[in-house]
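agent> fetching stored inputs for the adenosine-5'-triphosphate docking request
agent> found them:
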Amino acid sequence: MLVKTYGYALRGIDAQKITIEVNIGKGFFFMLVGLPDNAIKESQHRIDAALKNNAHKIPGKGITINMAPADIRKEGSSYDLPLAIGILAADEKLDHTYLNDFAIMGELSLDGGVKPIKGILPMVIQAKKDGFKSIMLPAQNAQESCVIKGIDIYAVSHIKEAIQILKKPSSSPKFTSSVRKEFVLDDIDFNEVQGQYKMKRAAEIAASGGHNILLIGPPGSGKTMIAKRLPSILPLMSEEESIETTKIHSVVGNLNDQRGLLQIRPFQAPHHTISDVALVGGGNYPNPGAISLAHNGILFLDELPEFKRSVLEVLRQPIENREITISRAKFNINYPASFMLVASMNPCPCGYYNHPEKDCTCSTNQVQRYLHKISGPLLDRIDIHIEVSPVDVKDLNAETNSEKSEVIRERVIKARHIQADRFTESSSFTNAQMSIGEMRKYCRLDLSSQKLLNRAMDKLNLSARAYDRIVRVSRTIADLESSTSIKSSHIAEAIQYRSLDRGNWGR
Ligand SMILES: Nc1ncnc2c1ncn2[C@@H]1O[C@H](COP(=O)(O)OP(=O)(O)OP(=O)(O)O)[C@@H](O)[C@H]1O
Ligand SMILES: [Mg+2]
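agent> prediction call returned; pasting tokens
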């Protein structure tokens, strides 16, 4: 007889319903059609073993399986369970009264165990939209799906449980959403960073306005330390942001049974040897890259000049568009990639250019060459460049504790609220994202600020691109003070955050 089961395929970070038709008739064959990849073709053997080991077997009859729509490539092993259930039902070994209520996914092991799969969260979201009453999924994936309300979730760890549930769903236990588990930061806090007030202030401004930031300083000055602590001063993600970010992590299989919805903003720190595909996403079977895993959070590029120039170049488009498009012959995939870029670098190859005590051994040329490893257009997109001195020994020995992250975060949240009110009607969320028009509207400078900025541009030989950045950052500094207008003191501070724009750097 003919039965249908339903599974899901991933397209980017969204899922699409796949109808699996199983027909058992005369003959002796097993035919699988509808653009399945090799892993699915191999599922015949996994299903065979899983059923045999549980007192069932694939019937020795003509089995035709069609996966529709046929133009979508079906990958991976996540269709094992709906296929096996379909075969049992078509062979009339399983009651199919409730089969149409269910979307089913899971990979089978040879003993019939159900193994976790990638992308469950987008699948559950789509199954609900498609009107399914229930979804059956691997127990190890249940935690990531529990935030979606209005669809019954049945978590199974063995095919026997799946068969049991389909007999009478109403008397089977549903997976109830456990307490939302917070993905805990590794206990790191800003109060461990002694001194370095200038760098901490810049980090707070960057976090408040969502500004990209570059930390420049000698080895051991605490650049990496501060960057790693940035998520602890950012506001938690909104529900909508959480779901979107969690979907991306679900698609790459980063979540486990301990991690449900992500709430703390992600922090991705790829090594400088990363390839451009791993950074921005892509590959034969497209996958999101580090920039998408950093969506709504931070992408940290430590030792920026060590990254291949070609890798840094591919970042330009997503920084601008806040998403990345992967083009394939037959389709395009968009992965969201709205991240705050945090980068660090030494000021020169030896690390001691501008150092107050140690001599820099680099020639002017070497310093310039080092800086030029980072292209102008990329620097252009970084609002704050902050040059830091080595940490003061007095500060390191100080008994007093610095400010805790939660105290700083309160101020950041306040500044973000002001921005949320400002941008209610706009697609921007933060000052860093303001359009030119919005900048004109919200960043009017009074005469004295204007004069100060013009003088600085002349005196420090600042490039034209610096102008725009200084104005944006000064808006955030004003927001941190709850000041509706931008004052000259705000401009004066923002001017200090353009170290690399000064025409005399390295000379
Ligand atoms: N301000 C500070 N307060 C407390 N400890 C610090 C501070 N700065 C540096 N340290 C200590 O020095 C170590 C090195 O700091 P970090 O890795 O952040 O330096 P860096 O500026 O990234 O250096 P590099 O250029 O070599 O990467 C830290 O792990 C920490 O133990
Ligand atoms: Mg470092």
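agent> quick read of the result: Residues 193-196, 217, 219-225, 344, 346, 391, 396 surround adenosine-5'-triphosphate (ligand 1) (CB under 6 Å).
agent> awaiting further instructions
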